[in-house]
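Troubleshooting log. The previous structure file for this entry was overwritten by mistake, so regenerating from the original sequence record. Sequence copied from the archived sheet and checked twice against the printout by T.R.
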Amino acid sequence: MRTLPPVVLVLLLWFADLGAAAQFSKISILYDTLRAGYGGQGEVALGLVVSIVGLVGLIFGTTAGLLVARIGPRRMIIVALAVGAAMSALQAPLPSYTVMLASRVVEGMSHLAIVVVGPTIIAALAPEAKRALAMTLWSSFFGVTYTVLALIAPVVTPVTLFLSHAVYMTAVAVILAVTVRVNPALVPAPMRDLLAQHAEIYASDRLAAPTIGFCCYMSHPGR
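Regenerated output below.
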């Protein structure tokens, strides 16, 4: 999946994951603003605007991994970035609650695709001696994004923040589309029945264990 030096592509994928983290943090940081606009819906409904992105990941995480193998990581991450950009642009004027929530569901799918592709390809591209460093860099994407947006949010309007995120996601998608080519080692896998693949995964304790562990993590009250 590369025509660029591995270090450059690793950074580009990290930038893509920064955009994915912003899909969470832009809402969290603007929570008081959202309360002013959507507070009449109730606190649970308001919290759902934040958490629905993660819920999409819980439900469709395995499906996303299988689709990446079919569609190919390059195409998947570029489409996901473009969809994320479109959703941010749609959210900029703070539309009705129904539209906002629907856009967050779509954004959850975009987020899921990016965070599935990003670390997988980073781990594949990084030389063995540098792999731990590359994955440490990747693991910082949530913390870095929340820090940056916490500094920016007080001095920009919500519209500016959402539109800036849309522009950022578009820019990263275009850069990846122009510079990245498919590595023969990462060509899409043959098409197989999705339901059969799900059954195969969840019938195996070894294959299902990571998913079960992640569900426990996401549902933990202290998270």
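DSSP finds ten helices and no strands in the chain. Archived copy saved in two places this time.
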